[in-house]
Amino acid sequence: MRRKTLTQYLIEQQREFNNIPAELRLLIEVVARACKSISHAVSKGALGGVLGSAGSENVQGEVQKKLDVISNEILLEANEWGGHLAAMASEEMEDVFHIPNRYPKGEYLMMFDPLDGSSNIDVNVSIGTIFSVLRCPDNVTEATEQDFLQPGTQQVAAGYAVYGPQTVLVLTTGHGVHCFTLDREMGSWVLTQENMRIPEDTKEFAINASNSRHWYPPVQRYVGEMLDGKDGVRGKDFNMRWIASMVADVHRILNRGGVFMYPADKREPDKPGKLRLMYEANPMAMIVEQAGGAATNGKQRILDVQPTKLHERVAVFLGSKNEVERVTRYHADA
Ligand code: AHG
Ligand code: MN
Ligand code: MN
């Protein structure tokens, strides 16, 4: 069977449905190329001198790993000169990155989590990259943070790469979710799964259970009922998985269902959760919804949340529809 490459797929989509304009196609191809470089750096590990801490902190006060910084630079360098972007923003940069004046500017804004799952880098567990694409508002010549603060419903594309046993790129432009596998010999991304669908029901959940004593009652109730298994109100046994790389947990859920949770908790009552809305939760929520799943912050659809700042945090419940609806209902009941 002759397989389709990412380039072929994007051109065909444009021809058949007129839904991927040339500038967006360029953007996606450039991001895919950057992910290829990151995958290459990741796979070198100790041999490439890429492991360990960079000796700096990001705006969230987290210690940056060398690969956090390397991946951020790869994405910036790949994307700054092509003329497809008006500006970029990243987990690893406090402020908006402006396209240098020597390059033309384009009509899109991009945000990314260059390296997701940083705690897994040095122990050789799957990690990834997440990105979200918005349109730059009309007549904006120098995009500011304000221009990025659009709800997730406005995303024109979202995707993630997983650097795991295989390197894959999962992509949506609002017409289903498709998975491409990196063919290292050929250097190309090959379409390997079309129209991924998340089963509506599941017997698998993902949460960092070490925080259970800090959870609020709706999460206590929901997880408690799953832990009660066959003997409890749910009447069935559940299995648990927690990789601590959102990309890898979400990828499992896209493939076989499940529910992923990173709730707000009592440790820091002022914080609405750990994960970042703009470059973690929103792109993943778009992908999950496009695959037939659901994503809420416990109260409302994540994609409807109006962001108020670039590095805003949000509680996340996403995955199999019936489970996300249930845990959201428990929040409403409380
Ligand atoms: P990042 O490495 O980009 O900071 O993101 C890590 C996130 C997410 O990928 C993962 O699900 C979660 O943090 C893990 O958190 P815990 O260490 O609290 O389990
Ligand atoms: Mn992350
Ligand atoms: Mn990160």
From TrEMBL:
SUPFAM superfamilies named in the record: Carbohydrate phosphatase
Cofactor: Mg(2+)
Residues reported in the UniProt entry to bind Mg(2+) 2: 113, 116, 280
Annotated GO MF terms: fructose 1,6-bisphosphate 1-phosphatase activity; magnesium ion binding
Residue stretches making up the Fructose-1-6-bisphosphatase class I N-terminal domain: 4-194
Residue runs in coiled coils: none
GO CC terms, sorted: cytosol
Subcellular location: Cytoplasm
BP term (GO), one: sucrose biosynthetic process
Pathway in which this enzyme or protein is active: Carbohydrate biosynthesis
The keyword Magnesium belongs to this UniProt entry's keyword annotation: yes
NCBIfam families named in the record: PRK09293.1-1, PRK09293.1-3, PRK09293.1-4
Assigned protein family: Belongs to the FBPase class 1 family.
Protein name stated in the entry: Fructose-1,6-bisphosphatase class 1
Species assigned in the record: Pandoraea terrae
Organism phylogeny: Bacteria, Pseudomonadati, Pseudomonadota, Betaproteobacteria, Burkholderiales
Gene expressing this chain: fbp_1
